[in-house]
C-alpha cells in the first residue's frame, strides 16, 4: 500500500483547466482514468485525509504509485478522451459495463453488391445496417421469415451464393419465392439493392406509408379483376401486420427513443436499455458492473451512454434519450450526443405520461436483472475467494494469489514443441493476456529444459519491462530479445505498443506460477527464476497422476483434499493451460502438413501464391505452364517466373492414376488440387484461417 503523499504533485504543477488524468500502480499499469472540468480541483480531492475518502477511492489511491494528466480544450474532448483510454487500458478501478450475454442483431450488409439479411453478433461493421438487439436469435429468424414474402432479399452465405451462380440454379428459397435469386440474374443489382432499402425502411419503423401503398395496389388490382395479384398483395399485408405484432406499441406518438434505467446497491449496478423506434420496442439489452469507484447514479448513466454510443460503428443516437438521473454536468454529455447524431438530442428524465410509465417498466427489468445476477454470483464469489485462500494456506503464501500464471509444454513425439501461458486473475480467466511460445532453444523432446526456457524468456521480458531499458519488435505480433542467448518466438494476442500502461505486456508479474508437471518441472521453473534474481514469486506444480501439488525443494508433495476448492482451482488453471498448448501444437502440425511446393520458392509471398493458384487452378497446371504464361499473373516478373518454374521442376510430379483392370491412365475430370507426390491439398498459396497469432 502506497502513501498518496509520496507521489502527490504540488498544487502549482496541476493546471486549472479541463483534462483527463491517469493513476498508475508500481508496475506502471493504469488502474484508473478520470476526467475533470478543473484538474487542479479534482485531483486535490484524492490527496486529503484517507479517513475522509470513500473506501474504494481510498483503496485506489493507496494502490497507485503515480498520477499524470493530459490537458484538453473542452469538457467534450475530456469525455471523448476518457472513454478512449478506458477502452484502451481496461483500468481495474473504473466502472466497466459487461453484457450479461451476447445480443444478436438483425443485420443487412448494405456494403455488399447484393445486400444480405442475416443474424450478427459482436462488433459492428461499417456499411452494415443493424436492427435490435433481440433477446433471442430465433426471434430474428421468425421476423425475417415473415418479411421475406414481401421483401425477398438474399439471405444465403457467400459460398452458397457463388455455388448457385456457378451452377445456374438458385437455392430452395429462390424456388419458393422467398428470395429474388440475384445469384442467377433474376433481378438486377440495382433492383435488389432497392428491395433491401425497402426492407431496412420497414424495419426502421416506417411501416404506415408502405402498408397504405400495398393496400392501394390491392384495391386497384381487384378493380381491374386481377384477383390472383390482389390475393398475393392481401397475403403480403397480413404477413407484414403479423411481423409488426411481434413488437408491441408502447408509445402512441411513434417516438424514436432509448430508455436507460439503473438498479444499484453499494457494490454493484445493473443497467437496462429499451430501444424504441416508431413507438415500438425494437430491442433490449442489459449490463452489469461492479462499483469499484465511488459513483453516483448520474455517473453510471454517463458511463452507460459512453458504452452505448462511444464506438464509431455504435448504435445510432435517437432523438430522445430518457434516463433516471442526469450526468453532472449535463451540458458536455448533451453536446457529445448531438455531435454523435449530427442533430439535436433530448437527454432528459421523463416526468409523466406514457414515457414515465415505460421508464418504470425498464426500471423493473433492471431490478430483476440485478437480483438475478446476485443470485448467480453469490456462490461463485464465495467459492473463488475460498479457493484462493486455500491455495495461499496450502503453499504458505503471505496473501491470496490474485494473479496466477500456468505453463504447459506440448509436442507430438518430439516435433512441433510449443508452450502455453494462461492467466487467471481473481480466479477468473484473463484470456487477453494468454501467451504462446515456440521452443527453439534446442531440438527434440525435453519437457524440463523446455519449461526452463519458457520461464526464463517470460520473466526476462518482465525484468526488461520493469527496468524500461528498451523494447523490441520483430513483426507485428512477435517479440524477440536480440540480446537473449535463447532463441524463440513469443506470440502475443495483439501488437505491442510503446505506451507501457497497456495490460497486454509481460510487465505485470504474478503472485503464483503453476507448471503442469511434478518435481522436475517445478525445479526447472524455480531455477529459471533464481537465475534471474526473482525471489518474490511462488512456484508450484500439479502432477496429473495423483493431482499432487509440488513445491520447490520439498521431497513430498502437498496433498489437498479431493473436495478442496483450492485444488479444483489449480486443476482448472492446469487444464486450461493444457488446452491452450495442445490447440496451438495441433495448429502448427496441421499447417506443416498442408505445406506445398510453392513454399520452397524464395521471395514468393502469400498474396502472389494465392494469385498463382487462382490463375492456374492447380499446381499441376502451374507446373506445366511456360515462363511467359506465368508472367501473365499480376505481380510476377520474368525473374520470379523463372524461379517458380525452376522450383516446380525440381519437385516430383504426382504419378498418374491407372485403371488396374485395363492398365489405362485415368484422365483427371476435376482440377488437380494436389501438390507433388504427397497427395496433400495445396494450401501453400492460401491464407491459413486457423493460424491464429502464429508468425
From TrEMBL:
SMART domains on file: GIYc, HhH1
Keyword Repeat: no
Region (Disordered) residue spans: 653-695
GO BP terms in the entry: nucleotide-excision repair; SOS response
SUPFAM superfamilies given in the database record: C-terminal UvrC-binding domain of UvrB, GIY-YIG endonuclease, RuvA domain 2-like
Domain UvrC family homology region profile: 259-529
Gene Ontology molecular functions: DNA binding; excinuclease ABC activity
Protein name stated in the entry: UvrABC system protein C
Main location: cytoplasm
Lineage of source species: Bacteria, Bacillati, Actinomycetota, Actinomycetes, Kitasatosporales
Amino acid at each position: 500500500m502506497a502513501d498518496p503523499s509520496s507521489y502527490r504533485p504540488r498544487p502549482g504543477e496541476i493546471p486549472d483547466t479541463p483534462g483527463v488524468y491517469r493513476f498508475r500502480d508500481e508496475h506502471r499499469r493504469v488502474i484508473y482514468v478520470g476526467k475533470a472540468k478543473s484538474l487542479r480541483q479534482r485531483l486535490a480531492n484524492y490527496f486529503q485525509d484517507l479517513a475522509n475518502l470513500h473506501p474504494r477511492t481510498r483503496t485506489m489511491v493507496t494502490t497507485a504509485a503515480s498520477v499524470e494528466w493530459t490537458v484538453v480544450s473542452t469538457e467534450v474532448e475530456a469525455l471523448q478522451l476518457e472513454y478512449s483510454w478506458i477502452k484502451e487500458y481496461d483500468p481495474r478501478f473504473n466502472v466497466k459495463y459487461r453484457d450479461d450475454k451476447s445480443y444478436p442483431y438483425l443485420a443487412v450488409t448494405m456494403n455488399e453488391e447484393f445486400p444480405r439479411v442475416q443474424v450478427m453478433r459482436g462488433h459492428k461493421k461499417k456499411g452494415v445496417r443493424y436492427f435490435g438487439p433481440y433477446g433471442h436469435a430465433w426471434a430474428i429468424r421468425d421476423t425475417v421469415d415473415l418479411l421475406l414474402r414481401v421483401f425477398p432479399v438474399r439471405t444465403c452465405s457467400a459460398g452458397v451464393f457463388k455455388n448457385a451462380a456457378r451452377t445456374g440454379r438458385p437455392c430452395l428459397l429462390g424456388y419458393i419465392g422467398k428470395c429474388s435469386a440475384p445469384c442467377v440474374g433474376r433481378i438486377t443489382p440495382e433492383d435488389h439493392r432497392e428491395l433491401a432499402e425497402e426492407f431496412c425502411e420497414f424495419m426502421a419503423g416506417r411501416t404506415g406509408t408502405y402498408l397504405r401503398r400495398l393496400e392501394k395496389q390491392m384495391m386497384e388490382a381487384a378493380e381491374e379483376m386481377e384477383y390472383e395479384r390482389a390475393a398475393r398483395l392481401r397475403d403480403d399485408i397480413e404477413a407484414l401486420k403479423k411481423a409488426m405484432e411481434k413488437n408491441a406499441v408502447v408509445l402512441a406518438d411513434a417516438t424514436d427513443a432509448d430508455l436507460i434505467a439503473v438498479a444499484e446497491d453499494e457494490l454493484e449496478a445493473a443497467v437496462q436499455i429499451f430501444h424504441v423506434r416508431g413507438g415500438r420496442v425494437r430491442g433490449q439489452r442489459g449490463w452489469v458492473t461492479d462499483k469499484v469507484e465511488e459513483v453516483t447514479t448520474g455517473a453510471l448513466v454517463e458511463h452507460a451512454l459512453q458504452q452505448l454510443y462511444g464506438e464509431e460503428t455504435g448504435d445510432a443516437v435517437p432523438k430522445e434519450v430518457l434516463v433516471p438521473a442526469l450526468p453532472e454536468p449535463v451540458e458536455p454529455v448533451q453536446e457529445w450526443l448531438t455531435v454523435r447524431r449530427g442533430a439535436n438530442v433530448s437527454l432528459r428524465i421523463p416526468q409523466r405520461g406514457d414515457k414515465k410509465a415505460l421508464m418504470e417498466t425498464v426500471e423493473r427489468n433492471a431490478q430483476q436483472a440485478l437480483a438475478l445476477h446476485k443470485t448467480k454470483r453469490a456462490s461463485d464469489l464465495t467459492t473463488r475467494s475460498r479457493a484462493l485462500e486455500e491455495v495461499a494456506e496450502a503453499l504458505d503464501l503471505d496473501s491470496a494469489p490474485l494473479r496466477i500464471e500456468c505453463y504447459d509444454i506440448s509436442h507430438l513425439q518430439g516435433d512441433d514443441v510449443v508452450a502455453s501461458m494462461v492467466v487467471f486473475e481473481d480466479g477468473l480467466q484473463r484470456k487477453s493476456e494468454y501467451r504462446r511460445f515456440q521452443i527453439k532453444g534446442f531440438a527434440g523432446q525435453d519437457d524440463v529444459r523446455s519449461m526452463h526456457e519458457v520461464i526464463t524468456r517470460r520473466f526476462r521480458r518482465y525484468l526488461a519491462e520493469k527496468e524500461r531499458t528498451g523494447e523490441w519488435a520483430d513483426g507485428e505480433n512477435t517479440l524477440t530479445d536480440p540480446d537473449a542467448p535463447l532463441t524463440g518466438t513469443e506470440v502475443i494476442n495483439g501488437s505491442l505498443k510503446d505506451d507501457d500502461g497497456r495490460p497486454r505486456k509481460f510487465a505485470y508479474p504474478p503472485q503464483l506460477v503453476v507448471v503442469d508437471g511434478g518435481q522436475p518441472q517445478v525445479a526447472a521453473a524455480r531455477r529459471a527464476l533464481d537465475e534471474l534474481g526473482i525471489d518474490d514469486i511462488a512456484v508450484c506444480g500439479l502432477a496429473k497422476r495423483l493431482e499432487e501439488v509440488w513445491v520447490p525443494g520439498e521431497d513430498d508433495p502437498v496433498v489437498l483434499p479431493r473436495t478442496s476448492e483450492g485444488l479444483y482451482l489449480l486443476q482448472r488453471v492446469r487444464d486450461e493451460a493444457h488446452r491452450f498448448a495442445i490447440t496451438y501444437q495441433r495448429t502448427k502440425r496441421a499447417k506443416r502438413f498442408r505445406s506445398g511446393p510453392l513454399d520452397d520458392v524464395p521471395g514468393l509471398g502469400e498474396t502472389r501464391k494465392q494469385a498463382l493458384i487462382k490463375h492456374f487452378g492447380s499446381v499441376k497446371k502451374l507446373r506445366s505452364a511456360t515462363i511467359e504464361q506465368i508472367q501473365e499473373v499480376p505481380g510476377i516478373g520474368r525473374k520470379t517466373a523463372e524461379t517458380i518454374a525452376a522450383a516446380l521442376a525440381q519437385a516430383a510430379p504426382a504419378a498418374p492414376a491407372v485403371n488396374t483392370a485395363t492398365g489405362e491412365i485415368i484422365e483427371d475430370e476435376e482440377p488437380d488440387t494436389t501438390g507433388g507426390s504427397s497427395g496433400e491439398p495445396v494450401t501453400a498459396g492460401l491464407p491459413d484461417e486457423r493460424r491464429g497469432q502464429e508468425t
